[in-house]
Each structure stands twice: as structure tokens, then as C-alpha cells.
Amino acid sequence: MQQYTFTQIGTFHTNHNEDFLVSHPLGKNQLLIAVMDGCTMGTDSHFAATLIGKLLRKFAKEYYYQSFIEKTEKNLVLLLKLLLTQLFAALKTLKNQLSLEQEELLSTLIIGVIDQQTQQAELLTIGDGIIYCNGQLTEYEQENKPDYLGYHLAKNFDIWYAQQTQSLSLDNVQDLSIATDGIFTFKGFLTKTLLGL
């Protein structure tokens, strides 16, 4: 499976890129993919996206080692829920340990788990973003008011998770892309150099 990744600091972001991405194996055939976009109106908006990404990578490494030792791989639906359960708990703990404000933990999240052998994928979008699979585009637009995960850390995880509606179960995955809504700010440009003038 070929993977391509791209991230770029936004035009109006002067100090940090507010997006973060993760791609990490979960087992012999399974892969975690995720993109995060920090809230520009939040405090240190790059921090939440980066923290979520680093936590997800940590969990993916743990599942990868566990899968290697046990010689088994988990069901994708269960695996996605387990990863989010861990993320939710870790963010709650870190919020308390570091005395973080809610505004410091605001980031969108598109998270997916893929089985490369069965060509299946499970994805969940928290906030806004896009998913492109086999020529079909799914866009989640929340009118610039994303429902960030950071808003829900005081809630019961199972109740919150059961209310999520921006999920996709995909079969026969040949081509899959996920992106934050920042991709819509990309613009084509022509320069004299490119035109050969």
C-alpha cells in the first residue's frame, strides 16, 4: 500500500501549523490514519492537534506490539472504539494534570482504522473535514463551528460515542484520502516560471 502525506502551515498562521497527521501500523494488516486541525480561535491551537496525534501514535504502537505478541488483530469497529476510549481518557487525565483549559484542547479529528488485507475501513469524523474513497467525496461541514472533542471530556464516553453520526464503514477500499478543511484553502496558481515565460 502506497501512502502519501502532506501538511503545510496556513497562510494566516504565523508561528505554527495547526494541522497534524498520523499514520501508523496497528498490526500486520491494520493501519491507523488520523488528521487533526487545531481551533484557530482556541489557545495555542497547534497544541491540541499535536497532543492528540502524539497520543494516537502511542496507542497505535501499543496495539502493534500487542498484535505481534498475540498473533491476532482486532475487529475494526472494536479497534476504533478502543482507540477513542483511550484518547478520551488520556485527554481527561492530561487536562487535569496540566490544568489545561477547554480552549487549549480544541481540535477536529478524522480517525480511521484500515484492514489492508480485507480492504475495509472504519472512520469517524469529530468536527469537520473530508474523506475521499474510491472516487466518492464525503464532506463534513459544521459552518465553522466544529463540535470539538475537547467540549465533551467531562461527559460519559459511551454516551458521547453512541451519539456520533459522522462515521463511515467502507468496503473494497482501493483509494482513501482524509483531510482537514484546510484543503479547501489550496488554490491553483500560475507563475511566469511555471509558464516558461
Number of domains: 1
Derived from helix and strand composition plus strand pairing, the structural class reads alpha+beta
Low-confidence stretches: 189-197
Please work out how many helical segments DSSP would assign: 4
Question: Could you describe the largest sheet, including whether it forms a barrel?
Answer: 5 strands, antiparallel
Mean pLDDT: 85
Tell me, briefly, the overall form: globular
* Secondary structure tally: strands: 8
Give the name of the CATH superfamily. Answer: PPM-type phosphatase domain
Termini gap? 39 Å
Helices and strands in order:
Layout: E1 19-25, E2 30-38, H1 45-70, H2 76-97, E3 107-115, E4 120-126, E5 129-133, E6 136-140, H3 157-162, E7 167-170, E8 176-179, H4 192-195
Antiparallel strand pairs: 1-2, 2-3, 3-4, 4-7, 5-6, 5-8
Note down, in words, how this protein is organized.
With 197 residues, this protein is of the alpha+beta class. It has a single domain, classed as PPM-type phosphatase domain (Phosphatase 2c, domain 1), CATH 3.60.40. The protein contains four helices and eight strands; from the N terminus they run E-E-H-H-E-E-E-E-H-E-E-H. The longest helix has 26 residues. It is globular. The C terminus is likely disordered.
Quick structural summary:
The chain is α+β, with helices and mostly antiparallel strands and 197 residues long.
Notable characteristics:
alpha+beta, 5-stranded antiparallel beta sheet, globular
